């Protein structure tokens, strides 16, 4: 099956063009949605079936639907861009497809084939093409997800699943350039243990992170950083973004894969940095070392990265023991250069040596 195999049922009452135009001027993030959604069903006996793009609307769920009780759910996040030449593009969508399959494996769910994953997105974006904002830094955020839809309270992998993809126009995550964020070090709550679900993109990881994120806000910080479960010493990642450290010798470091989410932005930054001859290390970095290096000036920049906010500088770090500032407390040079390089490729405004841009439609 591919995008051709998606049946299309047009929304009979789409948002009218003038209202859509108003919404697209300042869409914010994750608040407004397009006219359609993609859906594919899976059952034990039929496998994947009923692929369609249909009017977006509420789902009717039995109160005993398995996901509501045991949280068997995974998701992805990627963006469709309107290019300067009027074309439409996705960024490395097959990496999202692969990670979606890997998340499914970890959560004992059926794997959605890559052609169906990509087909659902292409079919949806084609139907809702007019919803892609054209402003600087804006895009159509796509949210593929899958959950256990079987009606059964027994604890076991479900025998029925629903895969959906919805789309939401998104403005520039930070309107006036990327301000530096402040980070709270979670010394009590952890995000993921070895053998756990840290590398799977599942809703449950987010549910477990919210109390720590709330603690960060209460401490006057924007985001929380999680440490490893055994020693509470090694830096993992933020609630929803990977971390990079930049040193005074020009080298960069990021924590190794394992318990963290394998970010596609993380992988892209690693590749772009290597392309530029920057020395790159994927190695554990301790929280006390981070503070010592920031104070001595050995560490000059830190940034977080992920699809939604792309690259976000970290300005200050706060913990129960005190606080320290990274560099000048604002966006650093290496951070800004890597961000500019990545976003230029994503928007097809720079050569694409790794064939990351997927044009269609
Ligand atoms: C999605 C996600 C990221 C970023 O991944 P990208 O592929 O770069 O968007 C980082 N950490 C967590 C926990 C995530 O869920």
Automatic annotation (TrEMBL):
Pathway given in the UniProt record: Amino-acid biosynthesis; L-leucine biosynthesis; L-leucine from 3-methyl-2-oxobutanoate: step 4/4; Amino-acid biosynthesis; L-valine biosynthesis; L-valine from pyruvate: step 4/4; Amino-acid biosynthesis; L-isoleucine biosynthesis; L-isoleucine from 2-oxobutanoate: step 4/4
Which reaction equation describes what this protein catalyses? L-leucine + 2-oxoglutarate = 4-methyl-2-oxopentanoate + L-glutamate; L-isoleucine + 2-oxoglutarate = (S)-3-methyl-2-oxopentanoate + L-glutamate; L-valine + 2-oxoglutarate = 3-methyl-2-oxobutanoate + L-glutamate
Q: What cofactors does this protein use?
A: pyridoxal 5'-phosphate
Q: What is its EC number?
A: 2.6.1.42
Query: Mind telling me which CDD domains this protein's record contains?
Result: BCAT_beta_family
Protein's name in the database: Branched-chain-amino-acid aminotransferase
Modified residues annotated as N6-(pyridoxal phosphate)lysine in this record: 201
Enzyme class at the top of the EC tree: transferase
Q: Which GO terms describe its biological process?
A: isoleucine biosynthetic process; L-leucine biosynthetic process; L-valine biosynthetic process
Single GO MF annotation: L-valine-2-oxoglutarate transaminase activity
Location of the region described as Disordered in the Swiss-Prot/TrEMBL record: 1-21
Give the family, as the similarity comment puts it: Belongs to the class-IV pyridoxal-phosphate-dependent aminotransferase family.
Q: What does this protein do?
A: Acts on leucine, isoleucine and valine.
Protein source organism: Sphingomonas turrisvirgatae
User: Which key words tag this protein in UniProt?
Assistant: Amino-acid biosynthesis, Aminotransferase, Branched-chain amino acid biosynthesis, Pyridoxal phosphate, Transferase
What InterPro entries does this protein map onto? Aminotrans_IV, Aminotrans_IV_CS, Aminotransferase-like, B_amino_transII, BCAT-like_C, BCAT-like_N, BCAT_family
Pfam families from the xrefs?
A: Aminotran_4
């Amino acid at each position: 099956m591919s995008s051709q195999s998606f049946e299309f049922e047009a929304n009979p009452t789409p948002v009218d063009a003038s209202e859509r135009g108003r919404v697209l001027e300042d869409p914010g993030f994750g608040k407004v949605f397009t006219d359609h959604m993609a859906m594919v069903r899976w059952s034990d006996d039929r496998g994947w079936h009923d692929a369609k793009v249909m009017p977006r609307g509420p789902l009717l769920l039995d109160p005993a639907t398995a996901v509501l009780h045991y949280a068997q759910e995974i998701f992805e996040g990627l963006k469709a861009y309107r290019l300067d030449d009027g074309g439409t593009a996705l960024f490395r969508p097959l990496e999202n497809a692969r990670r979606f399959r890997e998340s499914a494996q970890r959560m004992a769910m059926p794997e959605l084939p890559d052609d169906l994953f990509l087909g659902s997105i292409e079919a949806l974006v084609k139907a809702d093409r007019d919803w892609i904002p054209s402003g600087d830094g804006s895009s159509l955020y796509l949210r593929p997800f899958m959950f256990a839809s079987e009606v059964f309270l027994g604890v076991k992998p479900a025998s029925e699943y629903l895969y959906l993809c919805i789309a939401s126009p998104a403005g520039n995550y930070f309107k006036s350039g990327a301000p530096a964020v402040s980070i709270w070090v979670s010394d009590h709550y952890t995000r993921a243990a070895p053998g756990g679900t840290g590398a799977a993109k599942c809703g449950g990881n987010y549910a477990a992170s919210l109390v720590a994120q709330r603690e960060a806000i209460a401490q006057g910080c924007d985001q929380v950083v999680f440490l490893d479960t055994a020693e509470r010493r090694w830096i993992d990642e933020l609630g929803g973004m990977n971390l990079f450290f930049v040193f005074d010798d020009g080298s960069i470091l990021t924590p190794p894969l394992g318990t963290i989410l394998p970010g596609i932005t993380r992988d892209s930054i690693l590749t772009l940095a290597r392309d530029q001859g920057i020395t790159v290390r994927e190695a554990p970095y301790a929280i006390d070392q981070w503070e010592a290096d920031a104070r001595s000036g050995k560490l000059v920049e830190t940034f977080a990265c992920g699809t939604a906010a792309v690259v976000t500088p970290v300005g200050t770090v706060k913990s129960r023991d005190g606080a320290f500032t990274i560099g000048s407390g604002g966006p650093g040079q290496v951070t800004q250069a890597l961000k500019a390089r990545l976003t230029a490729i994503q928007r097809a405004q720079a050569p694409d040596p790794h064939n990351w841009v997927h044009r269609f439609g």
